Amino acid sequence: MNKIKLAIIGGTGFYGLEGINFTDRSVKTPYGQVKIKTGEYKGIELAFLNRHGEGRNLPPHLINYRANIFALKKIGVRAILATNTVGAINTKMKPGSLVFIDQFIDFTKSRSGTFFDGEKGVVHIDLTNPYCEIIRQELIKAAKEKNMPFHEKGTLIVTEGPRFETPAEIKFFRSIGADLVGMTGFPEAALAREAGICYASICIATNFAAGASNELLNIEEIGAAMEKVKKPLYELILAVADRHVFSSDCQCKSSEKQFELLLNKK
């Protein structure tokens, strides 16, 4: 399993990759057991992790983010491509848009957002660029080559969930610079950085956020919107996988040594 270099984390409506035969595996971590699917694409060993669990039974605030990232690190993952289903605050990012976000704002309340809990001293990670710029640029190149509509950057604000936001909250989020709103982008990105794993997110805007349209929000419509972009999303992910984006010379690895000490202790 240590040959696996690239992992895909699937969010709402994205529960696998067509055309790849995956094998179910279970990985033990100090934070709990994690189910991971592993398979191969053009000689590349891939891992697929369903963020919401089998049958989509885990709401955003109860996902075991630390166990998930720890498990991926344990099996040798060097890079993560995550998909996040989000609502559009910026009206230029219309439903159906792909956005390769470059910043996030954390508005969660009760999640464990770090591995470094003092056992090995205090560790402060740099998140000036919270998403791997190498992978983001490969996503941009691949999307251009495939003539896919996309936005090169954007800011995601992450809320606790599982409820949707109020129009008043969305108005405030817009005022502080958020383009998109979702419930699962944090603490994944921060934990991946702590673990020394390159991490990039493909945000899929499936709807306008509350108050940005006259429509009420419901998960069924969001799932239906996700179905429409599945095929190009598959193609984009596999195109990036084919580029072997597993860089060892990347700022994302800055805290890897500290995490290795934690990994060995655990």
Number of domains: 1
Helicity, in percent?
A: 25-40%
The strand count comes to 11
What's the average pLDDT? 89
Number of helices: 6
CATH architecture title = 3-Layer(aba) Sandwich
H/E element order: EEEEHEEEHEEHEHEHH
CATH fold naming: Rossmann fold
What's the CATH first level?
Answer: Alpha Beta
Shape: globular
Relative strand content: 25-35%
Largest sheet geometry: 11 strands, mixed
Radius of gyration over C-alpha positions, nearest whole angstrom = 17 Å
CATH homolog superfamily = Nucleoside phosphorylase domain
Distance from N terminus to C terminus (CA atoms, Å) equals: 19 Å
Q: Catalogue the unreliable spans.
A: none
**Strand-pairing-aware structural class:** alpha/beta
Walk me through the structure.
The chain has 266 residues and is an alpha/beta fold. The protein has one domain (6-265): 3-Layer(aba) Sandwich (Rossmann fold). It is built from six helices and eleven strands. The protein has helices at 65-74, 133-145, 167-175, 188-195, 219-241, 256-265; strands at residues 6-10, 23-29, 32-41, 44-50, 79-88, 98-99, 103-107, 150-151, 155-159, 180-182, 198-208. Strands 1, 2, 3, 4, 5, 6, 7, 8, 9, 10 and 11 form an eleven-stranded mixed beta sheet that branches. The longest helix is centred in the last third of the chain and has 23 residues, at 219-241. It is globular, with a radius of gyration of 17 Å. The two termini are 19 Å apart.
